[in-house]
Amino acid sequence: MATGTSTTSVRIPDDLLDRFDRLTKATARTRSYHIIRALEAYIAEQEYLVDLFSAAAAEADSDPTAVTNADATAMAIEAGLLRPEDLEGTDPVSADEYEAAQERSVAWT
């Protein structure tokens, strides 16, 4: 079954775009190909996380003794979706703090 497509625009830092363009040349694939694959992987990961924590919350709501936040966090760490150091410090609240946190999280991959 064919699906429709849409066009969107994204601002990408120059250095990241340079790396991206080198990848497209090295693989002989288009930007669109790589962006779609990256989005598919990212969305699948995020959906998994949402489902994981939703299930843990639903289970905790139905039986408060069944699952704790610590249990859900431990499962996410065991699955490789969180690192203990990701839980340290305060949550970023400003745009600058959020960007800095994103850069740090990319650095460990």
Describe the structure.
The chain has four helices and no strands. It has 109 residues and is mainly α. It has one domain (15-107). The longest helix is centred in the middle third of the chain and has 32 residues, at 31-62. The model has no long low-confidence stretch (mean pLDDT 81).
Q: Describe the sheet with the most strands.
A: none
Q: Would you count the extended β strands for me?
A: 0
Helix content class = 55-70%
Secondary-structure element order, N to C: HHHH
* Strand residues, percent: under 5%
The number of domains: 1
Number of DSSP helical runs: 4
From the N-terminal CA to the C-terminal CA, the straight-line distance is 35 Å
Helix-strand category: mainly alpha
Query: Measured on Cα atoms, how large is the radius of gyration?
Result: 18 Å
Shape: extended
Rounded mean pLDDT score? 81
Give a concise summary.
This protein has about 110 residues and is mainly α. The chain has 4 helices and no strands.
Key descriptive features of the protein:
mainly alpha, 63% helix, 109 residues, extended
Task: Summarize the helices and strands and which ones pair or pack.
Elements: H1 14-27, H2 31-62, H3 69-78, H4 95-107
